[in-house]
Amino acid sequence: MRSATLFSYQLALDAGVILRDRRLKTREGMLVKLIDDSSEGWGEIAPLPQFSVETPEHARHEAVRWLARWCAGEQPPESPLPSVAFGISCALAELEGRLPAEGNLRSALLCSGDPDALFERLRNQPAPLAKMKVGLYEAVRDGMQVNLLLEALPNLTLRLDANRSWTLERALKFARYVTTELRGRIAYLEEPCRTVAESLAFARQTGIAVAWDESLREDTTLLSAQQGVRAVVIKPTLTGSIQKVQRQVAAAQRLGLTPVIGSALESSLGLTQLARLAQWLTPDSVPGLDTLQLMQQQLLRRWPGSSLPVSGMEGLQCLWQQ
Asked: What's the predicted TM-score (pTM) here?
Protein backbone atom coordinates (compact mmCIF):
# COMPACT_ATOMS: atom_id res chain seq x y z
CA MET A 1 0.00 0.00 0.00
CA ARG A 2 1.52 3.31 -1.10
CA SER A 3 1.15 6.68 0.60
CA ALA A 4 2.95 10.00 0.33
CA THR A 5 3.17 13.28 2.21
CA LEU A 6 4.58 16.61 1.11
CA PHE A 7 5.77 18.99 3.82
CA SER A 8 7.14 22.52 3.72
CA TYR A 9 9.90 23.91 5.94
CA GLN A 10 11.53 27.24 6.67
CA LEU A 11 14.95 27.60 8.30
CA ALA A 12 16.63 30.80 9.46
CA LEU A 13 19.99 31.61 7.87
CA ASP A 14 22.90 33.63 9.18
CA ALA A 15 22.73 37.29 8.24
CA GLY A 16 25.67 37.15 5.85
CA VAL A 17 24.29 34.69 3.26
CA ILE A 18 24.32 36.39 -0.15
CA LEU A 19 23.30 34.62 -3.35
CA ARG A 20 24.57 36.62 -6.29
CA ASP A 21 23.14 40.07 -5.52
CA ARG A 22 20.47 39.01 -3.04
CA ARG A 23 20.71 38.55 0.73
CA LEU A 24 18.86 35.42 1.82
CA LYS A 25 17.40 35.43 5.35
CA THR A 26 15.61 32.07 5.28
CA ARG A 27 15.89 28.82 3.37
CA GLU A 28 12.54 27.47 2.32
CA GLY A 29 11.85 24.11 0.78
CA MET A 30 9.80 20.93 0.90
CA LEU A 31 10.31 17.40 2.15
CA VAL A 32 8.64 14.40 0.55
CA LYS A 33 7.91 11.19 2.47
CA LEU A 34 7.08 7.99 0.59
CA ILE A 35 5.71 4.83 2.21
CA ASP A 36 5.30 1.51 0.42
CA ASP A 37 4.10 -1.24 2.75
CA SER A 38 6.64 -1.15 5.60
CA SER A 39 9.37 0.77 3.73
CA GLU A 40 9.87 4.54 4.03
CA GLY A 41 11.90 7.08 2.10
CA TRP A 42 12.51 10.82 2.41
CA GLY A 43 13.72 13.42 -0.04
CA GLU A 44 14.18 17.18 -0.18
CA ILE A 45 12.74 19.44 -2.89
CA ALA A 46 14.24 22.90 -2.47
CA PRO A 47 14.59 25.18 -5.51
CA LEU A 48 17.39 27.69 -4.89
CA PRO A 49 16.46 31.34 -5.51
CA GLN A 50 18.29 32.86 -8.50
CA PHE A 51 19.77 29.51 -9.48
CA SER A 52 16.89 27.07 -10.01
CA VAL A 53 14.87 27.31 -13.21
CA GLU A 54 11.66 26.44 -11.34
CA THR A 55 9.82 28.49 -8.71
CA PRO A 56 8.78 26.94 -5.37
CA GLU A 57 5.13 27.13 -6.45
CA HIS A 58 5.85 25.37 -9.73
CA ALA A 59 7.83 22.70 -7.87
CA ARG A 60 4.98 22.14 -5.41
CA HIS A 61 2.41 21.63 -8.17
CA GLU A 62 4.69 19.27 -10.06
CA ALA A 63 5.53 17.28 -6.92
CA VAL A 64 1.84 16.83 -6.02
CA ARG A 65 1.05 15.71 -9.57
CA TRP A 66 3.88 13.13 -9.52
CA LEU A 67 3.05 11.86 -6.03
CA ALA A 68 -0.63 11.40 -6.81
CA ARG A 69 0.24 9.22 -9.79
CA TRP A 70 2.74 7.22 -7.73
CA CYS A 71 0.19 6.64 -4.95
CA ALA A 72 -2.22 5.36 -7.61
CA GLY A 73 0.26 2.59 -8.44
CA GLU A 74 1.91 4.16 -11.49
CA GLN A 75 5.64 4.53 -12.16
CA PRO A 76 5.66 8.14 -13.40
CA PRO A 77 8.63 9.35 -15.49
CA GLU A 78 11.17 11.71 -13.95
CA SER A 79 9.95 15.24 -13.42
CA PRO A 80 11.43 17.80 -15.82
CA LEU A 81 12.01 20.09 -12.83
CA PRO A 82 15.46 19.38 -11.35
CA SER A 83 14.65 19.93 -7.67
CA VAL A 84 11.53 17.74 -7.89
CA ALA A 85 13.34 15.00 -9.81
CA PHE A 86 16.19 14.94 -7.32
CA GLY A 87 14.09 14.99 -4.15
CA ILE A 88 11.78 12.25 -5.36
CA SER A 89 14.67 10.12 -6.61
CA CYS A 90 16.26 10.33 -3.15
CA ALA A 91 13.01 9.26 -1.50
CA LEU A 92 12.72 6.34 -3.93
CA ALA A 93 16.36 5.36 -3.38
CA GLU A 94 15.82 5.29 0.39
CA LEU A 95 12.58 3.38 -0.04
CA GLU A 96 14.30 0.75 -2.18
CA GLY A 97 17.50 0.58 -0.10
CA ARG A 98 19.75 1.89 -2.89
CA LEU A 99 21.25 4.87 -1.03
CA PRO A 100 24.26 3.87 1.12
CA ALA A 101 23.80 4.12 4.86
CA GLU A 102 27.12 5.92 5.33
CA GLY A 103 28.08 9.21 3.74
CA ASN A 104 31.27 10.87 2.53
CA LEU A 105 31.55 13.41 5.35
CA ARG A 106 34.76 15.01 4.16
CA SER A 107 34.19 18.48 2.81
CA ALA A 108 36.02 21.56 1.65
CA LEU A 109 35.65 24.04 4.53
CA LEU A 110 33.64 27.07 3.50
CA CYS A 111 35.51 30.31 4.18
CA SER A 112 32.89 32.25 6.12
CA GLY A 113 32.26 33.49 9.63
CA ASP A 114 35.06 34.14 12.12
CA PRO A 115 38.39 34.25 10.20
CA ASP A 116 40.42 33.26 13.29
CA ALA A 117 38.25 30.19 13.94
CA LEU A 118 38.49 29.19 10.27
CA PHE A 119 42.27 29.59 10.32
CA GLU A 120 42.54 27.34 13.38
CA ARG A 121 40.36 24.66 11.80
CA LEU A 122 42.45 24.68 8.66
CA ARG A 123 45.77 24.77 10.50
CA ASN A 124 44.80 21.68 12.49
CA GLN A 125 44.18 19.58 9.40
CA PRO A 126 47.07 17.60 7.85
CA ALA A 127 45.95 18.38 4.28
CA PRO A 128 43.53 21.32 4.57
CA LEU A 129 41.04 21.99 1.78
CA ALA A 130 38.85 25.10 1.74
CA LYS A 131 36.37 26.79 -0.56
CA MET A 132 36.23 30.56 -0.92
CA LYS A 133 33.67 32.69 -2.71
CA VAL A 134 35.24 35.41 -4.82
CA GLY A 135 33.72 38.04 -7.06
CA LEU A 136 31.55 39.73 -4.45
CA TYR A 137 34.07 42.52 -3.92
CA GLU A 138 36.95 44.02 -5.89
CA ALA A 139 39.04 41.52 -7.85
CA VAL A 140 42.25 42.98 -6.40
CA ARG A 141 40.97 42.46 -2.85
CA ASP A 142 40.04 38.85 -3.64
CA GLY A 143 43.43 38.17 -5.17
CA MET A 144 45.26 39.57 -2.15
CA GLN A 145 43.11 37.53 0.27
CA VAL A 146 43.70 34.31 -1.64
CA ASN A 147 47.43 34.99 -1.79
CA LEU A 148 47.64 35.75 1.93
CA LEU A 149 45.76 32.58 2.88
CA LEU A 150 47.92 30.38 0.67
CA GLU A 151 51.07 31.97 2.05
CA ALA A 152 49.93 31.57 5.66
CA LEU A 153 49.03 27.88 5.26
CA PRO A 154 51.66 26.16 3.09
CA ASN A 155 49.69 22.89 2.94
CA LEU A 156 46.37 24.49 2.00
CA THR A 157 44.55 23.74 -1.25
CA LEU A 158 41.81 26.18 -2.26
CA ARG A 159 38.70 25.81 -4.35
CA LEU A 160 37.38 29.16 -5.54
CA ASP A 161 33.97 30.09 -6.90
CA ALA A 162 33.26 33.35 -8.76
CA ASN A 163 29.74 32.57 -10.03
CA ARG A 164 30.53 34.29 -13.35
CA SER A 165 31.12 37.60 -11.60
CA TRP A 166 34.04 38.85 -13.67
CA THR A 167 34.88 40.05 -17.12
CA LEU A 168 38.11 38.53 -18.44
CA GLU A 169 39.91 41.79 -17.60
CA ARG A 170 38.80 41.66 -13.95
CA ALA A 171 39.60 37.95 -13.66
CA LEU A 172 43.13 38.58 -14.92
CA LYS A 173 43.46 41.43 -12.44
CA PHE A 174 42.57 38.94 -9.67
CA ALA A 175 45.20 36.51 -10.91
CA ARG A 176 47.93 39.16 -10.96
CA TYR A 177 47.69 39.39 -7.17
CA VAL A 178 48.17 35.64 -6.71
CA THR A 179 51.85 34.85 -7.11
CA THR A 180 52.69 32.33 -9.81
CA GLU A 181 54.24 29.80 -7.43
CA LEU A 182 51.05 29.70 -5.32
CA ARG A 183 48.59 29.24 -8.19
CA GLY A 184 49.24 25.51 -8.31
CA ARG A 185 47.48 25.16 -4.95
CA ILE A 186 44.25 26.51 -6.38
CA ALA A 187 42.46 23.26 -7.21
CA TYR A 188 40.14 25.15 -9.55
CA LEU A 189 38.18 28.35 -9.95
CA GLU A 190 34.51 27.76 -10.67
CA GLU A 191 33.01 29.87 -13.42
CA PRO A 192 35.41 32.85 -13.23
CA CYS A 193 33.94 34.81 -16.13
CA ARG A 194 30.60 35.71 -17.63
CA THR A 195 31.14 33.58 -20.73
CA VAL A 196 32.66 30.18 -21.36
CA ALA A 197 35.12 31.61 -23.88
CA GLU A 198 36.43 34.16 -21.38
CA SER A 199 36.79 31.49 -18.67
CA LEU A 200 38.81 29.28 -21.01
CA ALA A 201 40.98 32.27 -21.96
CA PHE A 202 41.53 32.99 -18.26
CA ALA A 203 42.75 29.41 -17.69
CA ARG A 204 45.12 29.57 -20.66
CA GLN A 205 46.61 32.91 -19.66
CA THR A 206 47.01 32.28 -15.92
CA GLY A 207 47.56 28.55 -15.55
CA ILE A 208 44.72 28.47 -12.98
CA ALA A 209 42.36 25.59 -13.76
CA VAL A 210 38.65 26.25 -14.03
CA ALA A 211 35.57 24.18 -13.23
CA TRP A 212 32.11 24.23 -14.77
CA ASP A 213 28.97 24.58 -12.68
CA GLU A 214 26.17 26.76 -14.10
CA SER A 215 27.57 26.50 -17.63
CA LEU A 216 27.33 22.71 -17.62
CA ARG A 217 23.65 22.87 -16.65
CA GLU A 218 23.01 25.22 -19.57
CA ASP A 219 25.11 23.34 -22.12
CA THR A 220 25.86 19.67 -21.51
CA THR A 221 28.28 19.63 -24.47
CA LEU A 222 30.76 21.36 -22.15
CA LEU A 223 31.25 17.96 -20.52
CA SER A 224 34.27 17.39 -22.71
CA ALA A 225 38.04 17.47 -22.45
CA GLN A 226 39.15 21.09 -22.75
CA GLN A 227 42.48 22.73 -21.98
CA GLY A 228 42.40 24.34 -18.56
CA VAL A 229 39.25 22.58 -17.33
CA ARG A 230 39.88 20.33 -14.34
CA ALA A 231 36.54 19.64 -12.66
CA VAL A 232 32.76 19.74 -12.89
CA VAL A 233 30.71 20.73 -9.88
CA ILE A 234 27.40 18.88 -9.85
CA LYS A 235 24.68 20.25 -7.58
CA PRO A 236 21.92 17.62 -7.74
CA THR A 237 19.13 19.97 -6.61
CA LEU A 238 19.91 22.08 -9.69
CA THR A 239 20.73 19.13 -11.97
CA GLY A 240 18.01 16.53 -11.58
CA SER A 241 17.52 12.93 -10.50
CA ILE A 242 20.14 10.63 -9.03
CA GLN A 243 20.19 8.82 -12.37
CA LYS A 244 21.05 12.02 -14.24
CA VAL A 245 23.75 12.86 -11.69
CA GLN A 246 25.12 9.35 -12.07
CA ARG A 247 25.39 9.77 -15.85
CA GLN A 248 27.21 13.10 -15.51
CA VAL A 249 29.65 11.70 -12.96
CA ALA A 250 30.48 8.73 -15.20
CA ALA A 251 30.97 10.99 -18.23
CA ALA A 252 33.29 13.32 -16.30
CA GLN A 253 35.38 10.42 -15.03
CA ARG A 254 35.78 9.01 -18.53
CA LEU A 255 37.16 12.38 -19.64
CA GLY A 256 39.63 12.59 -16.75
CA LEU A 257 37.71 15.42 -15.05
CA THR A 258 37.06 15.50 -11.32
CA PRO A 259 33.33 15.35 -10.50
CA VAL A 260 32.45 17.14 -7.26
CA ILE A 261 29.04 16.73 -5.61
CA GLY A 262 28.00 20.15 -4.28
CA SER A 263 25.34 21.68 -2.07
CA ALA A 264 22.62 24.09 -3.14
CA LEU A 265 22.01 25.18 0.45
CA GLU A 266 19.92 22.17 1.45
CA SER A 267 18.83 21.40 5.00
CA SER A 268 20.74 18.90 7.13
CA LEU A 269 18.43 16.16 5.83
CA GLY A 270 19.32 16.98 2.25
CA LEU A 271 23.02 17.37 3.09
CA THR A 272 23.21 13.92 4.69
CA GLN A 273 21.67 12.46 1.54
CA LEU A 274 24.15 14.33 -0.64
CA ALA A 275 26.97 12.90 1.49
CA ARG A 276 25.57 9.40 0.97
CA LEU A 277 25.30 10.08 -2.75
CA ALA A 278 28.91 11.30 -2.83
CA GLN A 279 30.05 8.14 -1.04
CA TRP A 280 28.26 6.09 -3.68
CA LEU A 281 29.21 7.97 -6.84
CA THR A 282 32.39 9.96 -6.06
CA PRO A 283 34.12 8.24 -3.11
CA ASP A 284 37.55 9.54 -4.18
CA SER A 285 36.46 13.19 -4.50
CA VAL A 286 35.90 15.54 -1.57
CA PRO A 287 32.35 16.91 -1.89
CA GLY A 288 31.42 20.55 -1.32
CA LEU A 289 28.85 20.25 1.46
CA ASP A 290 30.06 22.64 4.17
CA THR A 291 26.97 24.87 4.06
CA LEU A 292 25.24 23.82 7.27
CA GLN A 293 27.24 26.47 9.11
CA LEU A 294 25.18 29.07 7.25
CA MET A 295 22.01 27.85 8.99
CA GLN A 296 20.77 28.32 12.52
CA GLN A 297 19.29 24.85 12.94
CA GLN A 298 19.13 21.36 11.48
CA LEU A 299 16.09 19.55 10.16
CA LEU A 300 14.97 16.04 11.20
CA ARG A 301 18.38 14.45 10.64
CA ARG A 302 21.56 15.56 12.33
CA TRP A 303 24.79 16.13 10.43
CA PRO A 304 27.43 14.11 12.33
CA GLY A 305 29.40 16.35 14.68
CA SER A 306 27.16 19.40 14.33
CA SER A 307 26.06 21.11 17.55
CA LEU A 308 23.21 23.05 15.91
CA PRO A 309 19.75 22.35 17.36
CA VAL A 310 17.56 19.95 15.39
CA SER A 311 14.03 20.92 14.37
CA GLY A 312 11.67 17.93 14.31
CA MET A 313 8.30 17.22 12.77
CA GLU A 314 6.86 20.19 14.63
CA GLY A 315 8.84 22.44 12.29
CA LEU A 316 7.06 21.06 9.20
CA GLN A 317 3.77 22.04 7.62
CA CYS A 318 1.79 19.42 5.72
CA LEU A 319 1.01 20.64 2.20
CA TRP A 320 -0.49 17.46 0.74
CA GLN A 321 -1.10 13.89 1.78
CA GLN A 322 -2.55 10.77 0.23
From this structure: 0.93
